[in-house]
Design goal:
The protein has ten helices and no strands. By secondary structure, it is mostly helical.
Length: 220
């Protein structure tokens, strides 16, 4: 059975394409709409908050924080059981490779998206530069785990779907440029785009609402 496409999905796609056109970012009109309600379902505010704190800590380790100090913070925030299998392997690794460190340091960008989703950050901004890392870390450091969760306010699903649709099309443009050996168009940062796409897809439950963080898809 063909899934019906709603007016809201089509309008969201059109707004994204108008934004891309304004910025000079290539797009293709036949790139599909993204899922909308009821298929797209937001995670709970508690799940998003726990995930955000975990992403912050794996990114901090990626930058070089030692195991002993990291363990203290994990215990302080009650995060021991909240990490994914890939994150646990990285945290427990005594000598992660440079590639692993780099991969997890990029999680700051996913963390930034979740901070925005939780209303700690007013605007995501264009994905052409890395996030404000000191600011993002301070948001968590200034709060206990309980305060971080209690003060979180999950954004409306329509706002999050708008961001997810736009990043989906940004990501297509980056991948299309890469296929022919060109840099991302219009000054986009490919790493930032990828991490935002990943985090937003997790937020809206793509491809399935019960998909684990380690297995999120960013297909375009």
């Amino acid at each position: 059975m063909t899934e019906l496409i709603s007016k809201e999905q089509l309008e969201r796609k059109k707004r994204s394409e108008q934004q891309l056109q304004t910025e000079g970012v290539p797009f293709i009109e036949h790139l599909p709409v993204i899922e909308g309600p009821p298929t797209a379902q937001l995670r709970s505010v508690e799940d998003v908050a726990w995930r955000a704190m975990c992403l912050n800590l794996v990114a901090v380790k990626g930058e070089g924080m030692g195991y002993e100090r990291l363990t203290e913070i994990i215990e302080q925030y009650g995060l021991r059981e909240k990490f994914t299998r890939d994150e646990v392997a990285f945290i427990e690794s005594a000598e992660p490779t440079d590639h692993e460190r780099n991969q997890f340091t990029w999680r700051y960008e996913a963390y930034w998206v979740l901070l925005w989703g939780l209303s700690y950050i007013p605007e995501l901004g264009r994905p052409d530069q890395i996030c404000d890392v000191p600011r993002s870390v301070k948001i968590m450091v200034d709060r206990t785990a309980e305060e971080f969760i209690h003060q979180s306010r999950l954004r409306d699903i329509e706002q999050i779907l708008d961001a997810a649709d736009l990043i989906y099309r940004y990501h297509w443009a980056c991948r299309d440029a890469n296929l022919v050996g060109n840099p991302p168009p219009a000054g986009l940062n490919g790493g930032v785009v990828l991490e935002r796409h990943y985090a937003l897809n997790w937020l809206i439950g793509y491809p399935e609402s019960d998909t684990d963080w380690d297995d999120i898809s960013t297909d375009t």
